[in-house]
Amino acid sequence: MRTALMAAALALGAVMPAAAHASVVITGIDDDPGYLKGDLMVYTPAGFQGTDPGMSRFRFTGTENGKAVEFLTYCVAALTALDTGTFERANISVLLGDTTRQQQLLTLLTHSDLLLGKETDLLARKTISAATQLAVWEIMEEHGGSYDTTSGQFYTMGGNSDDARALANSYLTQITTGGWTAVAGHKLQLLFSKDRQSQVFLSAVPEPASWATMIGGFALVGGMLRRRRSAAYRLA
Q1: Cβ(164)–Cβ(55) under 8 Å?
Q2: What is the Cα–Cα distance from 158 to 162, expressed in whole angstroms?
Q3: How many domains does the chain have?
Q4: pLDDT tens digit sequence for 86-144
Q5: For residue 182, which of 61, 107, 199, 222 is within the disulfide window of CB 3.0 to 4.6 Å?
Q6: 16-20, 202-206, 211-215: lowest mean pLDDT where?
């Protein structure tokens, strides 16, 4: 059976050329649901201080392989400028090699997605979104001890985002104590750029039934090709 599936997959590759790799061209960026701001962003290892940091989920729009695409994203490169341009799809491991933190990030984004989906109040949605962004930065950048969005190697202060910082800390506690686990059916991907702000987003993982259907299709194509070969041998 395994041999047949491999043959079918190879046969599919022969009759259906693989799509050429293409970059994602982002032409539009919107905050969704909207920014909350701080007065200061601090990253002590680099001696960095930035004023008026904004925290929100983003809606990136553009094209990929000539088709319109849209991504709901969070920044994973806080010290780099936000801009449109050309990005590459990549695995989160490009920027975050620690598998424990990868799982924490996946847990955070899957639960935040559920919370945003249930909330209708705009200020509450902004607070959830800002808290998620702050927690993403903590997971990505804080290596000096426990997660805390108000102190450590990476933190923000001031502005109208105190509630978001407190909420982000509660999310991080849920994640690190096992109160939350990742919601199944998702994986992390990046819109990666070396010179502009890279973004992380959730991508759906095919359900087992979908994989079964696809594998069944491979087997069917393989069987058809074998029958065609047998018929050709008989004619010869």
Answers
A1: yes
A2: 7
A3: 1
A4: 999 999 999 999 999 999 999 999 999 999 999 999 999 999 999 999 999 999 999 98
A5: 107
A6: 16-20
Decide if 153 is inside a domain: yes
Distance (Å, whole) CA 162 – CA 175: 20
pLDDT at 216: 54
Question: The tokens 């969070």 sit on which residue?
Answer: 74
Task: Enter the pTM of the model.
Answer: 0.80
- Identify the pLDDT of residue 233: 52
At position 97, the amino acid (one-letter code) is G
Which range of residues forms the domain containing residue 43? Answer: 24-204
Residue 224 lies in a domain: no
Phi-psi region of 15 (alpha: psi -120 to 50; beta: other; left: phi over 0): alpha
Residue 223 lies in a domain: no
- What is the C-alpha separation between 105 and 118, in angstroms, rounded? 20
> Does a structural domain hold residue 59?
yes
Structure tokens at 113: 């997605």
Which tens digits make up the pLDDT trace of 56-77? 999 999 999 999 999 999 999 9
| CB 91, CB 189: distance < 8 Å | yes
- Is residue 142 within 8 Å of residue 154, measured between CB atoms? yes
Contacts 24+ apart (CB under 8 A), 210-219: 215/5, 218/5, 218/8, 218/9, 218/12, 219/1, 219/4, 219/5, 219/8
Q: What is the C-alpha separation between 39 and 42, in angstroms, rounded? A: 10
Is pLDDT of 19 > 60?
no
Dihedral sign, Cα of residue 142, residue 148, residue 152, residue 158:
positive
